[in-house]
Amino acid sequence: MISSAKYVAAFFCLVLPSIAQAQSVGQVECPRSGGYVYLYSSMITLDVRTTLQCGELVQITGRYDLYFGVRTAKGEIGYVRWRASSC
Asked: Taking every pair of C-alpha atoms in the chain, what is the biggest distance, in angstroms?
């Protein structure tokens, strides 16, 4: 009986982390209200795709060094600096 409980516990420890997902929705934040941040099409060239308003909701697709990969409600995909020094 005890050995079967160990197997059940081991099963949950192995399966539950794969079921759980990290938060995938974020909100654009700026140091001052009414500002914006740039959505870059590339982290290498820093070509600006568009601007995102503070408070706008985005889907986070990943974290890459100092940038978050995001998808906007309009379907635009790009990168936002993790900590914007100016907005």
From this structure: 62
Place of tokens 């009414």: 34
- Which residue has 């936002």 as its token pair? 80
Give 34-79 pLDDT, tens digit per residue.
Answer: 789 999 999 999 999 999 998 899 999 999 989 999 999 999 999 9
Answer for the pair 46, 22: CB distance below 8 angstroms, yes or no.
no
DSSP letter (8 states) at residue 20: -
DSSP state of 45: T
What is the CB neighbour count within 10 angstroms for residue 29? Answer: 13
* Torsional class of 21: left (φ above 0), alpha (ψ -120 to 50), beta (otherwise): beta
CA pair distance 61, 77, nearest whole angstrom = 9
pLDDT at 82: 84
Is 69 exposed, middle or buried (CB count within 10 Å of its CB: 0-12, 13-18, 19+)?
A: middle
